What we know:
alpha/beta
Amino acid sequence: xxxGDIINYLNEIAPWQYAEEWDSVGLMVGSRNSNVSKIxxxxxxxxxxxxxxxxxGAQMILSHHPFIFSKLKAIDMENFKGEQIVKLIKSNVxxxxxxxxxxxxxxxxxxxxxxxxxxxxxxxxxPYIPKGSxxxxxxxxxxxxxxxxxxxxxxxxxxxxxxxxxxxxxxKKPEKVKNIGVFCGSFDGDLENLKSRKxxxxxxxxxxYHTALDAAQMGLCIVDAGHFATERIIxxxxxxxxxxxxxxxxxxxxxxxxxxxxxx
Length: 264
């Protein structure tokens, strides 16, 4: 099997054209023709993750966040990015990244976040039609809890289901919640759309200060559960999806990457 087989399948389940125009997805380092028998899944291609792949004999790393996001003007071995690229090439490790295409695809990160929080009757929070496509996708989802819950109980559920101990709350806490919005990773800041959808609370992974300030003034409630926590949940689901298609592949999830934010 070669890398191209994996890339082609990813294009079936989360087509590259679903990615937003500013994004960088697909083959980052290596060749489509490289043979692969073991894949390491991760959120980010860090130096530790590269070492983990090499030590575990993985010929390919599949990351959620793009390994190369902006254009490289040089591969300078004196800086960490250049050093990483050289190590990948010398170790014959290919890198492929699936980012916003995987966020919005059916069964992707936003759907998985909604499932993880046990939401039902889900639909798109913000319609998104990729350029050159007729697909009706969604940036974020809206769903319902089975029954009304107190806000405090819902926060406890978020922490339990995402495996986190801390989160940030923006705006006034509603007494009870049922209609829930989710937006994995960084919220796009479209507060007018959010308000028009009449959700009790939005669960996201990143929100800018001024967006948070405006949200609070608009009477919205947002829970910032962390970028890492709201997106890493896709890895085990992606592992199962790939294993069903490629039974001969050995697929592992990174054990060394951690949320870069800690709390004192």
